[in-house]
Amino acid sequence: MTAGVLAQASRPLLEWDWVAHNRGWIWEQALQHLYFTAVAVTIGLAISLVLALIGLRWRWTLAPILGFGGVLYTIPSLALFALLVPFFGITDRVAIIALITYTILILVRNITSGIDGVPSEVLEAADGMGYRRGRRFVEIELPLALPVIVAGLRIASVTVIGLVTVTALLGRGGLGFFILRGFRTTPAFPTMIVVGTLLSVVLAIAVDVLLLGLERFLTPWARRRQPA
């Protein structure tokens, strides 16, 4: 549909004069996009860590927790907005709550998989050295599970960056604003659509690379295990 609209538009795909004249406006919407992403992923990570700890401590709860996260993940974003707006109004809170729900399944699954993947001999060695359960989790299990946890964080962040574009329908800003405005302009204004789309992709790639660098910085032992 997007390609069809762009193909029918009478204006060029990208008008650099418009981009240069509106760079402040573009920067403002990009920051709003990052704000929604950072808040949603941070809160989602905190909630997922608590849920994962509950699931790891009481194993029978893990399947219901993942099932609940799966149900949330399958709800279309527009339907979720419609469910939340009567309770919270058309506010940033609606957008952030909706975005958080799409991180729970990914993060809980990766946190529990990462912790479960810690070798049993390592845990036995820690127990033999007198580590208590809490200290063993913080100093042994969590660091060794970091590559898997960060992998989940990367997927969740890229997913949220893509979904933030939908929050433009609530009038809450973000790069989706340009996409929506470009389509609503008569005739369609391709430059706004292209700018909103391209910058969303660039943000997703930049955040993914940033988190990959963070993972490599926090887990130097993982690099040393890689074959030359």
Question: Could you give a quick summary of the protein structure above?
Answer:
80% of the residues lie in helices and 0% in strands. The chain is mainly alpha-helical.
Main features:
single chain, 228 residues
Textual characterization of the structure:
This protein has 11 helices and no strands. By secondary structure, it is an all-alpha fold. Helix 3 runs antiparallel to helix 8 and helix 9 packs antiparallel against helix 10. The longest helix has 35 residues. The chain starts with a helix and ends with a helix.
Coarse morphology: elongated
Q: For the report, how would you describe the main beta sheet? A: none
**How far is the N terminus from the C terminus?**
46 Å
Which structural class matches the secondary elements?
mainly alpha
| Sequence stretches where pLDDT stays below 50 over 5 or more residues | none
The ordered string of helix (H) and strand (E) elements is: HHHHHHHHHHH
